[in-house]
Amino acid sequence: MARTPSNMLALGTTAPDFNLLNTVDKGFINLQSAKGKNGTVIMFICNHCPFVIHVNQMLIKIATMYSDKGIGFVAISSNDVENYPQDGPELMKRHAENIGYTFPYLYDETQDVAKTYDAACTPDFYVFDDNLKLVYRGQLDNSRPGNGLPVTGENLKHAIDCILKNKENTQSQKPSIGCNIKWKQ
């Protein structure tokens, strides 16, 4: 399994807009409809990546914890489905339902959204404030498949807590590590 780090988009960047297929209900979701009143978490994930599989239950737990506090959550898969058919929209829908995702799972067929976010790996996390300005990008926590550390979500939760407390996140922001996004040739 490849170990690709995040590109670490510049803090303060305005969230790039999108309008993508929600694989669960076949509707389309754009940034404004995904936006939370107090902040928004955008996650680049996929079905088959062992790094994502390792954190799936924590993603659901965090989304459940913070959705009622005005934080919007959306997951996007941008992988090339021609070469990685396990990440296609129908299997994304099945995966989201089987895992119990509580957030929309969007399909970035053209990969344009991943490129505008400078996403590099799965999972890749972006936290935006209520004005859609980037305040956090990077890892969920220090746990990785096989390293023996528990999945806590501490870095992502801390970033969200800072938004909710209206304070600056002064913790060091470390890149996420995961499988590279499967780019089309």
What topology, given as strand order, has the largest sheet?
3-2-6-5-4-8-9
Overall pLDDT metric: 96
CATH fold name:
Glutaredoxin
- CATH homologous superfamily assignment: Glutaredoxin
CATH C-level label: Alpha Beta
Helix and strand content put the structural class at alpha+beta
Largest sheet: 7 strands, mixed
Number of strand elements: 10
Give the SSE string: EEEHEHEHEHEEEHE
Tally of distinct domains? 1
User: Over all CA atoms, what is the radius of gyration?
Assistant: 15 Å
Percent in helix:
25-40%
**Amount of beta strand:** 15-25%
What is the CA-CA span between the terminal residues?
Answer: 20 Å
What would CATH call the architecture? Answer: 3-Layer(aba) Sandwich
Low-confidence stretches: none
Total helix count? 5
Shape from CA axes?
globular
Comma- or semicolon-separated keywords:
single chain; 185 residues; alpha+beta; Glutaredoxin; seven-stranded mixed β-sheet; three-stranded antiparallel β-sheet
